[in-house]
Amino acid sequence: MSLSKLSAISLAFTLALGMTACTPEVGSEAWCKHMSDKPSGDWTANEAKDYAEHCVFK
User: Fold this and answer.
1) In the 8-state DSSP scheme, what is residue 18?
2) What distance in Å separates the CA atoms of residue 5 and residue 22, rounded to the nearest whole number?
3) Does residue 30 come out as left (phi exceeding 0), alpha (psi in the -120 to 50 range) or beta?
4) DSSP 3-state of 43
5) Is the pTM of this model over 0.85?
6) Averaged pLDDT, groups of 10, the chain, 58 residues long
7) CA dihedral over 42, 47, 24, 22, signed as positive or negative
8) Is 44 helix (H, G, I), strand (E, B) or coil?
9) Cα-atom radius of gyration of the chain, to the nearest Å?
10) In sequence order, which ranges of 22-54 are alpha helices (DSSP H)?
11) How far apart are CA 30 and CA 23, in angstroms?
């Protein structure tokens, strides 16, 4: 495996890991706050279901 290919793979892994680390866990207080601040028109169907389940009907 070439060094540039290995570097690209490492960079992609690091970016993916960094993006997931910033997302609060679904159902947590931080996630509920984030969702309440996000316009409801931008929610996915899964986000709406999870919000109702974890933030409204707890």
Assistant:
1) H
2) 27
3) alpha
4) coil
5) no
6) 78 64 88 95 96 93
7) negative
8) coil
9) 17
10) 29-37, 45-51
11) 9
